[in-house]
Design a protein that fits this description.
Blueprint: H1 13-33, H2 46-57, H3 67-70, H4 73-88, H5 90-100, H6 107-117, H7 125-155, H8 157-172, H9 193-208, H10 210-220, H11 229-253, H12 265-278, H13 294-306, H14 319-333, E1 339-341, E2 344-346, H15 348-375, H16 381-392, H17 407-422, H18 424-431
Antiparallel strand pairs: 1-2
Helix pairs in contact: 1-2, 1-4, 1-6, 2-4, 2-17, 4-8, 5-6, 5-7, 7-8, 7-9, 8-9, 9-12, 11-12, 11-13, 13-16, 14-15, 15-16, 15-17, 16-17
Length: 450
């Protein structure tokens, strides 16, 4: 009787997902490193190529070389492909290829899709993947058509069309990488309502999450009678953050001569709204981030840390995580034993997970800021913390210091972006061989709190 040999290394679904992202980043970095990608047809520093490939795949937006002027159309197309794959997850594209080839999706692949999409269960995942791909390409196409009405008259047909497609994909995927050049982002278009509002809508749609939009669609056509608690929380948090952000940015920057003081009232309101939309995870900006007031910078840091909804193209700890932590605090203050949201009791394991995610992100920010504090001695603590939170929150905003980072600093930000996109807790759990705990309950005791 022959005994089956056990594999030396057993890789789980989360580890495959992480390795898949790493492979995409490495391939993208090699392509960007080659002379065929740069405008002057010379090799690009590999660290910079790796940095940009990571930023694009992790839909962050931080860059060390100017996207609009350094790369030629081949290099820009590589970045565009990385943004699209990174925004949706490489398993969604693998599913698309499998469906085109007529190949059946295996159970293991369904488990991978489950991890990639962060779904509730594995039922209907293939159908969900089809919906995500169709929804994404439809929204991005509409966005590109609207943007082309502005970019084609300015840049000509071919360049204007490419710019429209690139910025539509970058906005929907919450990447924040632009082709305008010279680190200006969308500041030249601060008073162009069509461009700013279209980019805003694309960011909101991408950051709200595929599951939320599916439920909104089903509710609109009466396939379902009500939204799930998850969708209610995502929508509520999005509305609260958008409204409060718009009001606060307007108040903070209203008389700032370096940002909004000399704008019309309508442009001030539009810029405030765009800032509220974009700073959470998209990385575009229509006003100078480094010239904002300290209150606006602090608000930006908070928004970058929170991010968007789960199951979306956005980053951060996610709006639902923030909502759980806030409502847990409210429940404790009210003397309740359980966390309650919309007259529903939340399971304690979800509350614990939310708290752990919050702590993990704080630790990652602390470690990365600690290292940059040593390697980037010329930068202020505010600049370093802002850069670290922007990387881990995959926001992509910066005070303009990213290109000047040391090699170690760039590597730290690369790792931070990677952790931020896949989730710090996900990566940590993939490294730990978790076993089912024994059914042992230790005696209860007390410690002093507060």
């Amino acid at each position: 009787m022959k005994l089956k040999s056990k594999p030396l290394f057993k890789i789980n679904e989360i580890q495959i997902l992480i390795l898949g992202f790493l492979l995409i980043i490495i391939v993208g970095a090699i392509l960007l490193w080659l002379p065929i990608s740069s405008e002057n047809h010379t090799y690009t520093n590999f660290i910079d190529s790796l940095f940009v490939a990571t930023s694009a795949t992790c839909v962050t937006g931080l860059i060390t070389v100017d996207t609009g002027t350094h790369w030629n159309y081949f290099g820009k197309t590589v970045i565009l492909a990385l943004i699209q794959i990174g925004g949706l997850g490489f398993m969604a594209f693998s599913t698309l290829i499998a469906l085109i080839l007529g190949r059946k999706i295996t159970l293991k692949e369904r488990l991978l899709i489950h991890e990639s999409l962060n779904s509730f269960n594995i039922q209907g995942l293939v159908k969900m993947s089809k919906y995500i791909l169709l929804f994404t390409f439809l929204v991005e196409t509409v966005g590109a058509v609207v943007l082309s009405s502005q970019f084609i008259p300015q840049f000509g047909v071919y360049r204007g069309l490419f710019y429209s497609i690139f910025h539509s994909v970058s906005a929907f995927c919450n990447a924040g990488i632009d082709l305008i050049g010279e680190g200006r982002s969308l500041m030249p278009y601060y008073n162009n309502f069509t461009i700013i509002f279209t980019i805003s809508v694309l960011i909101i749609i991408g950051g709200l999450g595929f599951y939320v939009w599916q439920e909104i669609y089903n509710l609109s056509f009466k396939y379902t009678k009500r939204l799930s608690l998850n969708s209610k929380v995502c929508i509520t948090m999005a509305v609260v953050l958008l409204a409060s952000g718009t009001i606060l940015f307007f108040l903070f920057e209203f008389n700032n001569p370096a940002t909004m003081k000399y704008m019309t009232s309508g442009d001030k309101l539009l810029s405030s709204f765009f800032a509220s939309v974009s700073v959470r995870t998209a990385g575009f900006n229509s006003i100078s981030i480094s010239d904002m007031n300290e209150s606006s910078k602090f608000l930006t840091i908070v928004f970058m840390f929170i991010g968007g909804a789960p199951g979306s193209t956005a980053g951060g700890i996610k709006t639902t995580t923030a909502a759980l932590i806030i409502m847990t605090a409210v429940s404790v203050i009210k003397g309740r034993q359980e966390t309650e949201i919309y007259k529903r009791t939340i399971k304690k394991d979800l509350v614990y997970k939310a708290i752990v995610i919050f702590i993990v992100y704080i630790i990652l920010i602390f470690i990365s800021a600690l290292i940059l504090g040593v390697t980037e001695k010329d930068e202020s603590l505010e600049t370093i913390i802002f850069e670290c939170i922007s990387a881990i929150g995959t926001s992509g905003l910066s005070f303009g210091t990213t290109p000047d980072l040391s090699i170690i600093g760039k590597i730290v930000i690369i790792i931070s972006m990677f952790f931020g996109r896949l989730g710090g807790l996900t990566i940590i759990l993939s490294m730990i061989n978790r076993k089912i705990p024994k059914s042992i309950k230790y005696p209860e005791d007390k410690i002093l709190i507060g």
